[in-house]
Amino acid sequence: MNPSTTLSRLKRLLFKTVSQNDLAKKSLSYKHTTIKLNKVKVIAGVGITTCVGYSFYHLLGNLKNEVKAASKPSPGEPDNTLPWYTISDVQNHKDSNSIWVVFKQGVYDITQFVQMHPGGDIIMKAAGSSIEPFWAMYGVHMQDEVFELLETYRIGNISMEDSKLAAKGAASDPYAFEPVRSFLLKATSLKPFNAEPPASLLVDNFLTPADIFYVRNHLPVPVIDEVSYRLEIQGSPHAQPVSFSLEDIKKLPPVTITAAVMCAGNRRSEMSQVKPVKGLSWGPAAVGNATWTGARLVDVLRLAGLNPDPDDRNVQHVHFEGLDIDLARTPYAASIPATKALDPRGDVILAYEMNGEPLTRDHGAPLRAVVPGVVGARNVKWLGKVILSPSESTSHWQQNDYKGFSPSTDWDTVDFSKSPAIQELPVISAICLPAPDTKVELENQTLDVQGYAWSGGGKAIVRVDVTIDQGRSWHVAKFTGQDSQAPLTRHWGWTLWKVTIPVDPNTKEVEIWSKAVDASYNTQPESFSNVWNLRGVLANAYHRVRVSLT
């Protein structure tokens, strides 16, 4: 099978279910020279957890069915039809020109996969060694299809003794010290932990309680001793850092802001109904609103002897590095423009309290960045370092994740370097009550609808429109929660709303639509068809909820 034929077939498979009749006609070899997933740029799961296992898990969706149809040895078990190698042989293949990894007793050449994968820099950390310690960090890979896809890169075997040597460290669980979470959170992944509450709970409180505030973790939650904790500040990428204790930060003038934090993938599950996307299947509750108390970033910088000018070409971005690290000790990191970070009206703070209480571990204790009006990915938790820089963070999550693309861009044509990193999020609304696909008992032949709305960049929500007749008539919602003290252009918190709609007695089912309008008169797109993107981010089309009426 030549590469172009393979590419064509895999492109079709990515968003198309293969019928059983088709599968019966297909014949795949598990040797290194046939179905080469690494011939394709259709590499999914970019940056969701940015790990080897997760990348394979999201690779080529329905291809897993085709792979299962072939005869093969069990993943990682010896295959006597292939050569045998030593651990030294594997360790000699750990640069970008030749990348071998080990899983159990299997040896795999993933060179071309890494070269074509936007997250290849992460995968390189397993080069010349076992993939198992990395997979222990990302539990989502523990599924048969992941192992089967890995087998397509199989080139040989390794002895049991060398296998144990290569996998040294895999037995320790990096998630052994995770915090206890509320039973109300619905997990979209366990390792790392990511979860959201039922959407119906969001409208109960203007300030979302910490225990039901959505959790977005990219790596294990670090164990941090507040007494020995230090925040490092660097005036440039190569400058000697200045460090401060948590008590040093708390001595600065405290500032409290009300701000919503939203995941870039909020409502991704709806966008995936147009066609598949790659990422955690978030519903409409990957968002929360809280008061955050801490020191202004500009005050912390002054404490470090820095008073940068936003117009200084050497200070165009501010990097945040977390204390959550992978096995190669690479931290989660992101950056924001200096124009946002250094402007006192940007209200960027280093927070140590949430809703008047010390931060919990899942939400960044002891110190986190709060960048109001900006996507959650830049609100770095467990903050360990702040760096002033002339350029953006080079982290995977800044360069190869959290970016939007044209609906026509697919995994064959995507170039992450051509798209800017998401900062401010677009205007959005969601219906929290009634819940989808439920039966609603009407009172006085009226339907109550409740939800939230928010817009990035500090733009206030000025109106929420709701319809139950496909847009022939619209009902303007009443605001039940909004920060009335916030200036119109520094409206960092969300808006809760409610509307009561009369219903015709003969109507037995309705589809409720909501759309929000912000202070710049931006509004939501009507459908996901024209805003679909392969990463499933920026999912802000009209929210639609279908219910039965009794």
TrEMBL record:
Its cofactor is heme b; Mo-molybdopterin. GO terms for cellular component: mitochondrial intermembrane space. InterPro entries: Cyt_B5-like_heme/steroid-bd, Cyt_B5-like_heme/steroid_sf, Cyt_B5_heme-BS, Ig_E-set, MoCF_OxRdtse_dimer, Mopterin_OxRdtase_euk, OxRdtase_Mopterin-bd_dom, OxRdtase_Mopterin-bd_sf. Gene3D superfamilies: 2.60.40.650, Cytochrome b5-like heme/steroid binding domain, Oxidoreductase, molybdopterin-binding domain. The keyword Plastid does not apply. Residues 82-159 form the Cytochrome b5 heme-binding domain. Pfam families: Cyt-b5, Mo-co_dimer, Oxidored_molyb. Keywords: Heme, Iron, Metal-binding, Mitochondrion, Molybdenum, Oxidoreductase. Its EC number is 1.8.3.1. The keyword Metal-binding applies. GO terms for biological process: sulfur compound metabolic process. Its main location: mitochondrion. One of its GO terms (molecular function) is molybdopterin cofactor binding. Pathway: Sulfur metabolism; Energy metabolism; sulfur metabolism. It is found in: Mitochondrion intermembrane space. This is sulfite oxidase. It comes from Cacopsylla melanoneura.
